[in-house]
Design brief:
Order of helices and strands: EHEHHEEHHHEHEHEHEHEHEHEHEHHH
Distance between the termini: 13 Å
Strand content: 15-25%
Number of helices: 16
Structural class: alpha/beta
Radius of gyration: 21 Å
Length: 358
């Protein structure tokens, strides 16, 4: 089998989609020697980069340049577009069968909230129905595809993701990590992540205010917060901001923290929950979208706006050693349900089944 994965432009910084593609490529190259695993990463045209404003440069690159770039790629068995934002590539893919992964439908789900009519996204999603199969990262994403697009349900396969194998519960030198990131060792540390609106950090910060009225020795470690992240002065001293951390260093950040707090209002999958559980970290999270599919019974869940319940759940874990250890064990047990072998084997199996029909 000749399999080619189609990736994003590097300048788009769609990190979670890039990581998804890299996990597929790395694992399959190592473990499926009978298949030829290849990928195509598009390049930005020099003149469009030089002459066009960024928003128009990316639109030109995505909808005009990328299709032109792949037209001359030799025929192969399987094309897999790793990011739903490129589903419009369908007519230009030179392969026997074609697949696409849909991570989430945020532009459509939050159309009213964002007060935008995402015409280009709608155009792109209109191509889903033509693919051999559409891989959804969760049952919730599958429901959204059926609800918001004209893709037939029978074409959609749910394949739950996995975390990289370096997200594990092996011991580390915590003092070295704390020193490297200038994080105090004598505080209870709650990890939060991301800076996009649906990560719900307005609620996160309100929960922190509640927590420090009870225990001033609680801090939030905010990874991926963005350089412009601003917090109010009354909680600023209780937040450690880490705008950027190397991917392979992230497990160490999990391991120096006591709890992952993940109050998201929507997730296509919710990979940070799985990463935390793989490191043996207790999870407090919301109960919407795909999150219950990932967390199962291993996390303490509540409505994404329930500040008091979030506060109680975090304190319940921090103040009870027996509960804490139980949550650690539940996290590790749950994480074992998501293996790279199962994830990739399901994908390869579907490739083979569809190729045999050709």
């Amino acid at each position: 089998m000749k399999i080619k994965y189609y990736l994003n432009f590097e300048k788009e910084n769609r990190t979670s989609m890039d990581n998804y593609a890299q996990r597929l490529i790395n694992y399959q190259k190592k473990n499926y020697k009978n298949s030829k695993i290849d990928f195509y990463k598009p390049k930005i045209n020099y003149f469009s980069n030089l002459l066009l404003p960024k928003i128009w440069m990316m639109r030109y690159s995505r909808y005009i340049s990328y299709p032109k770039q792949i037209k001359k790629i030799p025929m192969h068995d399987i094309s897999h577009v790793c990011d739903h934002q490129y589903a419009h590539l369908f007519p230009y893919l030179n392969s026997k069968i074609k697949f696409v992964t849909v991570h989430d439908l945020i532009p459509l789900v939050f159309q009213k909230r964002l007060n935008k009519n995402p015409l280009l996204n709608k155009y792109t999603f209109s191509k889903l129905k033509f693919f051999t199969k559409v891989f959804a990262r969760s049952e919730n994403t599958k429901k959204d595809i059926v609800k918001y697009t004209d893709c037939p349900e029978k074409k959609i396969e749910v394949i739950l993701d996995n975390a990289e194998d370096y997200f594990d519960n092996l011991p580390i030198n915590k003092n070295d990590v704390l020193k490297k990131y200038n994080i105090p060792s004598d505080k209870k540390k709650i990890l939060i992540s991301g800076n996009i609106f649906y990560k719900n950090h307005t609620i996160s910060y309100k929960v922190l205010k509640n927590l420090i009225t009870i225990n001033k020795n609680i801090i939030f470690v905010h990874i991926g917060c963005g350089k412009e992240n601003i917090v109010s002065s009354d909680i600023k001293n209780n937040i450690i901001q880490l705008p950027f951390v190397e991917r392979k260093e992230i497990p160490n950040i999990y391991k120096i923290c006591d709890v992952l707090f993940f109050p998201s209002i929507y997730e296509g999958f919710g990979l940070p929950i799985l990463e935390a559980m793989s490191c043996g970290i207790p999870v407090v999270c919301s109960d919407n979208s795909s999150i219950p599919e990932v967390a199962g019974d291993a996390a303490l869940m509540s409505d994404c706006n329930d500040i008091d319940k979030f506060t109680k759940n975090i304190l319940y874990i921090l103040n009870n050693e027996e509960v804490y250890l139980s949550m650690v064990n539940k996290s590790l047990l749950r994480s074992k349900s998501f293996s790279p072998y199962k994830f990739n084997n399901n994908i390869i199996r579907i490739y083979e089944e569809e190729l045999n029909k050709f």
